[in-house]
Amino acid sequence: MIRAEHIFKSYTNGKTVTEVLKDVSLEIEGGTCVILGASGSGKSTFLSVLSGLETPDSGNVFYGDEEVSAMTDKERTAFRKRRVAFVFQQYFLLSHLTVEKNVRLGADLAGIKEIDGVLEAVGLADKKKKYPCELSGGEQQRVSIARALAKTPEVLFLDEPTGALDEETGRQVIDFIGRLQKERGFTAVMVTHNQNLAETADTVIRMSSGKIAEIYRNETPKSAYEIGW
Fold it and tell me: Does the reported pTM lie above 0.70?
C-alpha cells in the first residue's frame, strides 16, 4: 500500500515561489489508479513525489512501513530500482538498440535474466529483433511498457502514456496495461487528462489547484474498448 500524508511541494524561480501541492493525503491499496486533473493541477508533480523521483517540501510517503520521503538520494535511487517502474508519454527508447535490447535494459536494472515472457505478454515476441524506427507508435509504447515491467516492479507509474497516440492505438495500450496488471498483480498509477480513462480504473483521484478534489472507486471498471475517447 502507498500512503501519502500531508504532502506540500513548491518550486522557486528567482523570487517567485509557486505552490504546486497543498496538503495532499491519500492511500492507494492496489489495482489500477487514475489521477485526473487539468494542466497545472499538480497531478504530474504528485506522481513524481509518490514514486520517489522528487521529495516533498514536507509530508511523508510510505510504501507499507518503508518511508520513501525520509531516504537519502542514494537510498531513493536503490528503492526505485527495486520497487517501481515508469512509462512516460515519450517512449525514451534507444534507437540503436533492438526491441529485445531496449527491454533488457529494464531487466538488467533488477538483475533479471529472462525477458521472453514480458515480450510475449505485450505482443512483441515476433518483433524483438526490430529497431524502434521499424515500429508503429503503439508498438514503441508497448516496448517502453515491456522495459518497465521487465523489472517486475511492485508499482508501475504512467505519466500520460497515451498522450502521443491516436485513439485506436491508445485503446490498445490501455487494454495492454489493464490486462497485464491483472495477470501480474502490480499496482498501476496513471496520470492523464483524458477523463474517459477514469472509467477503466479501480480508484480515481481528481486533482484541482494542487489539492485532491475527489476520490472514488469504480465497482465495475470498463475495458479500454467500452469507454469514449
Answer: yes
